Every structure is written in C-alpha cells, then in structure tokens.
Amino acid sequence: MFQVTTPQSSDDWQAYYQLRWQVLRAPWDQPRGSEQDDLEQESEHRFIKNKEGEVIAVARLHFNNSQQAQVRYMAVAEEHRGQHLGSRLLHELEKIAWTQNADELVLFARERALEFYKRHGYELKEKAHLAYGDVQHWRMVKQRPSEPGWFRHPDWTQVLQNTWRESIPISDKMGIKVESYTDWQFSVVADLDANINVHNTMFAGSVYSMATLAGWGATYLALREAGKEGDICSRQRQHQVHEANQIGAQSACRSAGL
C-alpha cells in the first residue's frame, strides 16, 4: 500500500524536487531550479515513496486567497503511472484544502491530464497559457463538495445519496451515508447512536442494511463508470415483490369466489 507523506529530511527534499524537475521540466530542456517558485515555503508538499524508499510521485498545494487553493506540480514517475498515485496525492491535497475551508480548487492541467481531472470533479473552464511553445494548459476548477470524501465524480455520489434518502427514508434516520468514493475505495458509514443496541453493539438489521446499501452503491457507481444504465434490485426486494404478487393473486381469487 502506497502512503502519502510529507518530505522531512534534506534527502527527501532533494528527491522531491528531482522528480518534479525530471517529469515537468527536463523533457523541455528547462534548467534545474525552474521546478521551484517563490511559494515553496508557504505551500503544502506531499510525496509518495516505493518500498525501496524512492520518491515516485509528488504534488503541491498553496492558497491564492482564503477561498481558493491551487494544486501545482503534480508529477508521477513514468514507470509508476496507472497505480492511482496521482489520485492519492490529489485526494490528500483536497482534504487539506477543504479542512482549511477553501470554497474551490483551481489548477492548470496539460492536455493529457484533462480526463483525469474531470473524473475527479474538476470542470474545464478555459484555455490558459502555452508553456515552452507547445504545451497547452487549461484552467480547471472544482467547487467544494457537500462531503469532503466525495472525491471521484461527486455529482454521481450526490445522486446516490439522494436516491437512498428518497427511496429508503429509514436509511436517513439511521444516518447511513457515503463516506468516500475514490479511485481505490468506496466506503459507507452510519450514525453510531442511531444503530447501537442495549448490548452496546450494532443492530444486526443495521449491519445488514449498511452492507446492502454499500453493495448497491458500489454497483451503481461501477455501472456509471462503465457508461451503463441499470436498476438495482436486491434479492430481498425481489422476494418482497414476489410475495406481494402472490398475495394479490390470492385476493383476486377470493374476490372471484375461486
């Protein structure tokens, strides 16, 4: 499991800036030092190391003002791409921004990264600057979600949460809600006080309901990720519908004198 941490030692910082330069500056023949700016001291820095202690992903967050934070210098070593490292870094930076009451996050993405940021709730606003003569950047913005953990496709998560509340009102009374949705996990939580019994344990029905909704939610989100539509109906619900149909048929038979 990769862990997001903060550079501490001089070796950490050297490796951190080395990767930033190697990925974001060296391919365009930019000199060492161009990977830093005058906001380094007042920014939040995060990186990921592999089990050998090598820095394989880096990112930075700074505040433009009290309402807006900005993500910069997101870089992942080429041989480690496709392992959700960028998502983990972005998630960590977002938590920092939302915890410090930012209303929105802004970033300037290169063309190849647009879809990555869109999946994580960033809206493409406008074409921005052209770097090094051929690297187009685009300004993207993400508004603070209603729940900080709704990291990937927060609009989908909101629809799921609303569906639970409207279709199964008792779930709202139980405090069951989506805690987080990221590239690597989907988690559901419930209000402890509303679901604890006299033995100081969770009601079996609460456990079952929470597990069922977690499965429902994961299936719904997986369908959306695959670009498919579908209705989710649990085996219990199918059984209830079957019983209702049987009762209806029996009542009709009695009314007809059969």
Task: Describe the protein in words.
This protein has two domains: 4-102, Gcn5-related N-acetyltransferase (GNAT) (Aminopeptidase, 3-Layer(aba) Sandwich); 154-255, Hotdog Thioesterase (Thiol Ester Dehydrase, Chain A), CATH 3.10.129. Helix content is 38%, strand content 23%. It has helices spanning 10-24, 85-99, 114-119, 154-167, 169-173, 204-225, 235-255, and strands at 4-5, 44-49, 55-63, 68-76, 104-110, 123-131, 135-143, 177-181, 186-189. A hairpin with a 3-residue loop joins strand 6 (123-131) and strand 7 (135-143). Helix 4 (154-167) crosses helix 6 (204-225). It is elongated and about 65 Å long. 24% of the residues are buried.
Biggest sheet statistics = 7 strands, mixed
Write the H/E string, N to C: EHEEEHEHEEHHEEHH
Beta-strand fraction estimate: 15-25%
Please name the fourth-level CATH homologous superfamily of the largest domain: Hotdog Thioesterase
Widest sheet: strand order? 1-2-3-4-5-7-6
Q: Rg from C-alpha positions?
A: 24 Å
- What is the chains' assembly state? single chain
Name the CATH class of the largest domain.
Answer: Alpha Beta
Q: What is the helix fraction of residues, given as a range?
A: 25-40%
Structural class assignment? alpha+beta
CATH topology of the largest domain: Thiol Ester Dehydrase, Chain A
Q: Please give the alpha-carbon distance between the first and last residues.
A: 66 Å
**Count of helical regions:** 7
Q: Using DSSP, what is the number of strands?
A: 9
Mean of residue pLDDT values: 87
What characteristic shape results from the CA principal axes? Answer: elongated
Level-2 CATH architecture of the largest domain: Roll
Give the domain tally.
2
Which ranges are low-confidence, i.e. pLDDT below 50, for 5 or more consecutive residues? 236-258
